[in-house]
Amino acid sequence: MRVLGVIRLSRETDETTSPERQRDGLSAWATAHGHTIVGWAEDLDVSGAVPPWERPELGRWLGDSPPAPFDVIAGWKIDRISRSLLHFVQLIDWARERGKHVAAYMDSVDTSTDAGELVAKVLAIFAEFERKTIAARSADSRRKARQDGTWHGGSVAYGYRPVKNPAGKGWTLAHDAETLPILRAIVADVIDGKSTASIARGLNARGVLSPRDHAAARDGKTRVHKDGTARKPQAWTDTTLRRMLVSRALLGQLEHRGRVVRDNGGLPVQRAEPLIPEADWTALQHALDGKRRPKYRAAPAALLSGLAFCGEDGSPLHFHWMVKPERNQEYRYYRCSGRTRQGLKCEAKAPRAEALEADTVGAFLSLVGDLEVMERRLVPGEDHTAELARVDQALTELRDDRAAGLYSGDRGTAEYRAMYLSLEGKRAALAELPNVPDRWDMVPTGRTFRETWDALAGPEERRAFLLASGLRVKVYADPRPTLAAMMPELAPEGAPLETRVSLEIPADLQRRVLEHAAKLAA
To answer: What is the pLDDT of residues 317-342, one digit of tens each?
Structure first.
């Protein structure tokens, strides 16, 4: 007889019957009975619950035009042919109507006789029961893995890689050094306002592997079509990026069937170390929702930006930079913004930046240069606001899930109540804890203002230092008397008598200046 050999390797069974062993056994059986194998229907990684007509290979042979005529559908065992009683009976009826029969040589089954058909159906019942038992055991195992935060197989979120669990059995997820920098760059670009479509085009142009292709390369697999030909590389798309960026996997949390997996206390299960900080996650979701982070104009690289104001009308002095290539000259100056603001007509001339900055620094250091720099240091208090916010957020999400019908039935209701009561208990406990605000202490640094100034590099660092010192500069059109002119006995030797620059410093620094001057006078 002409035999169609059926080979299947289930994803659910614990057996390790390789395709090669099934093929060798069927070939030996056919030879021993004088049969000829005319073809093979080999379906790997296909569940026994899939109907025979829907399998990629076996389905081709069960149509009106099979690759070759055959008389017997033969498998190693019945569960290699099907693990569904209904599907197996339908296959027997289909074969009988066409003058064919089904055989499983390891089970000594041959449906060409009534007795053989009866035995086959009885064995099919046990095969279906075994499939359901294995499926239930596998589902329980996956459920426990989700609750424990371990990895139970399947796809891995971009930015992670599976590793042996260092704390026990099984597997867990760790950061992937190859893809994590790419992911974080994508997140930063989206937060900065770039569209996911443009980011996807850039990734494709640079030849960055898509998540699916990277996973296949990492696992040493080659993605192929059903006919065995290699698949083309999968391109990054706007949809791929958005699906990846809205997933809670970025926070190391686990989602299952569209909802966050929670522990018995109602909080999200933390399966791995977060790929990005929670603040970046929040900003990312706002950006994806069309809400862009407000953009502020960065201060120019000028020493007095944000520090200097016009003494005539109080308007800020804006730094301007101009280059005249034909003269090979560069001009840097500060100009009163009141000259261009409606309703103001400041006539003060724009001072050159070099001169104004030099006058300001000279006056500032002559005033406070010998004083010790005091540094504000934070003394942390005890604040549970963030923890309370996380618990409140978990309660809100839990109520939303219940309203969406995700905790229906007796079991779901019991889980919901247990998690809700646990979260309410945590919230009550946190609300009882004291909240002590942070405070700032002024701590001596052991360095004078002049020493600190000389050690700073570049206008940005020095500008930041002036800002931290609380300095405010007023620039007048005409020179005005300085402290040296009004109180020469307190002024440092060589201090200018008149300047267009007037310095304003905080009250505590003024007090220290006067105390220091009094000590010098004494």
So the answer is: 888 887 776 667 778 889 888 776 65
Instruction: Average the pLDDT over each of 115-129, 268-282, 423-437 and give the range with the smallest value.
Output: 115-129
**pTM, rounded to two decimals:** 0.36
- What tokens appear for 362 in the block? 């000279």
Tens digits of residue pLDDT in 265-285: 667 777 778 889 888 888 888
Listing DSSP states for 177-218 in one string gives: TTTHHHHHHHHHHHHTT--HHHHHHHHHHTTPPPHHHHHHHH
Phi, psi of 420 (to 5 degrees): -65, -45
Let me know: does 30 contact 36? Beta carbons within 8 Å: yes
Query: pLDDT digits over 465-498, tens only?
Result: 998 899 999 988 777 665 555 455 555 565 555 6
Question: What b/e sequence results for 218-236 when a residue is b if at least 16 CB atoms lie within 10 Å of its CB, and e otherwise?
Answer: eeeeeeeeeeeeeeeeeeb
Task: Taking residues 210-230, report their average pLDDT.
Answer: 73
Q: What is the CA radius of gyration of the chain?
A: 39
Q: For 326, list phi and psi in degrees, rounded to 5.
A: -65, -25
Nearest 5 degrees, angle CA 472-CA 477-CA 481?
A: 70
| Position 296, amino acid | Y
Query: 2-135 with 160-288: one CATH topology?
Result: no
| Cβ atoms of residues 351 and 475 within 8 Å | yes
Residue reference for tokens 């002095």: 317
Of 303, 208, 196, the C-alpha closest to 246 is: 196
Helix (H) or strand (E) holding 2: strand 2-9
Q: Provide the total of helices (H) and of strands (E) in the chain, helices listed first.
A: 17, 16
Q: Please state, in angstroms and rounded to a whole number, the distance separating the CA atoms of residues 27 and 32.
A: 9
Cβ atoms 266, 217 nearer than 8 A? no
Between 450 and 140, the higher pLDDT residue? 450
CATH number of 160-288: 3.90.1750.20
Q: Which residues, other chains included, contact 355 with Cβ-Cβ below 8 Å and sequence gap of 6+?
A: none
Pick the CATH number of 2-135 from 3.40.50.720, 3.40.47.10, 3.40.50.1220, 3.40.50.1390: 3.40.50.1390
**Residue 125, CB half-sphere, CA atoms under 13 Å: how many?**
5
| Torsion (CA) 85, 88, 92, 97 in degrees, nearest 10 | 100
Residue 183 confidence (pLDDT): 92
Q: For the range 360-364, what are the long-range contacts, defined as Cβ-Cβ under 8 Å and sequence gap of 24 or more?
A: 360/303, 360/304, 360/307, 360/308, 360/473, 360/501, 360/503, 361/303, 361/453, 362/496, 363/482, 363/496, 363/499, 363/501, 363/503, 364/449, 364/466, 364/471, 364/503
Beta bridge partners of 439: 379
Q: Which of 320, 307, 310 is nearest to 346 (CA)?
A: 310
> What sign for the dihedral angle of Cα 284, 290, 294, 295?
positive
CA geometry: angle 266, 270, 272, nearest 5 deg:
170
Domain ranges of the chain: 2-135, 160-288, 298-380+441-522, 381-432
